[in-house]
Design goal:
4 helices; three-stranded antiparallel β-sheet; single chain
């Protein structure tokens, strides 16, 4: 069952991504929106890349991130692809 957070668009559901914060009604984790934003995609453009999301949901995810940076950063690190698994042509370094 989904557990509400202080953000109305953000929930946790133990059955989805082991309880990682997601956008309500989707399987999209907050970290996906944060990573897009960190890549330089303006919040207003993120729904163009993730068309199932509204701008309000994107801003809710970013707001949630502002209040829970350590938690979301840990999820980002945990889901990072190890450098040695990357194709040499795509490695930055």
């Amino acid at each position: 069952m989904a557990q509400a957070t202080e953000q109305p668009y953000i929930v946790r559901d133990d059955r989805i991504l082991s309880g990682e914060p997601i956008i309500k009604g989707t399987r999209t984790p907050v970290r996906a929106i944060v990573e897009s934003w960190r890549l330089g995609i303006p919040p207003e453009e993120i729904p163009h890349h993730l068309p199932h999301l509204t701008l309000a949901q994107v801003f809710a995810a970013l707001s949630y991130y502002c209040d829970h940076q350590a938690e979301i950063n840990a999820y980002i690190e945990r889901n990072r692809i190890p450098y040695e698994w990357l194709d040499p042509l795509t490695r930055q370094g």
